[in-house]
Amino acid sequence: MKKFLLIIMILFFAHSGVGHSAEIHNDLNKRLDLYQWAEAESGIPWYYIAGIDQYERSLLLADKDASPTQNNISIRFSDAVWGGIANPNSDDTNPVSIQFFQGIGLDGNGDGVASRSSDEDLLKTMTTILAKQGFDKEHFKIGLWEHYKKDRSVSIIMSNARLFEKYQNIDLQKKVFPISKKRNYTYKDTWAMARGFGGKRTHEGTDIFADYGTGVRSTCYGIVELKGWNRFGGWRIGIRDINNTYHYYAHLSSFAKDIQIGDLVEPGQIIGGVGSSGYGPVGTSGKFPPHLHYGMYKARQYTEWAFNPYPFLVKWERQSE
Question: DSSP string spanning 133-191?
Fold first, then answer.
């Protein structure tokens, strides 16, 4: 049954990647045009605006109860915030009445209405809110905190912005297999298998067995959020990508030279080596054969959970060099 489901998922991924590539490219171009339009209108660098929209997009995709949107821009505002808390019309698009009820909705495209179905109106409203604090980095972060009220949100948005600024591109979805196909390795679906060390628990990832010291690659564009020792995972690194997905690499033998928390990484970049560290105090090694434990975690506003990385690894292995 597992093999049948895996084949179905692979076929789905392959069909999606080919059939929708032109559509995805057009969508990215539209979004970049909108970010640059918002920069010209507000003075806020486009990569900050892109960082906000990418964060909102990741929350929307992770929210199974969210209503689908036809917008290119994923920024959302509630009825009460957009139209005003005392506004009797929850779908109000009249800028005059919105202002009367102290709502924040603005007309960005000059059509005389302030609509949440308009990308320009959404961007105009968000940038106006943030511009009140100032345009330099620190004041922009204050503006983000005033809007989201969460340090984590601010951190993720600023990380997204750093990636977009560095690569001057919003097409940062490329993924690669964490071990080069030129090296010897083997793996299978080890999701939810029992683990004994540290009490009864299940396996939240995929084990990729390879020779000790084999280079471990970042699978994605992202930022290093975590580096160090854990008694379960040994020497490990955690990287968050622009989709707010956390990629976890454990049981490493070593870290790549000079890699630090806060560094930006890209697909294929060596971040460490395969090892057998963990299951004890700092420095413990050799309690199991050398392998990479690779895990993936998804986040909503207040929760984060693991999901099975195996189907994604199969897809990335097929596409990687």
Answer: T-SSHHHHHHHHHHHH--HHHHHHHHHHHHHHHHHT-S-------SS-TTS-EEE---T
Q: Please say whether the beta carbons of 172 and 260 come within 8 A.
A: no
Among 291, 124, 120, which residue's Cα sits nearest to residue 216? 291
Q: Could you give the CA distance from residue 49 to residue 126 in angstroms, rounded to a whole number?
A: 9
Q: Which of 42, 33, 130, 36 is nearest to 72 (CA)?
A: 33
Structure token digits, residue 265: 């990484």
pLDDT digits (tens, 9 = 90+) for 62-114: 876 666 678 999 999 999 999 999 999 999 999 999 999 999 999 999 999 99
Cβ partners under 8 Å of residue 141, min gap 6: 154, 158
Distance CA 37, CA 121 (A): 12
Predicted TM-score of the model (pTM): 0.87
Q: What residue ranges in the chain does DSSP mark as E strands?
A: 185-187, 194-195, 201-202, 206-210, 215-217, 222-230, 234-241, 245-255, 264-265, 270-274, 291-299, 304-307
For residue 186, pLDDT beyond 80 = yes
227's CB contacts (< 8 A; 6+ apart) are: 236, 237, 238, 255, 259, 260, 261
Residue 5 has a pLDDT of 46
**What are residue 167's phi and psi, to 5 degrees?**
-95, -5
For residue 112, which phi and psi values (nearest 5 degrees)? 85, 0
Sole residue written with tokens 């700092």: 282
Helix or strand (DSSP H, E) at 27: helix 21-42
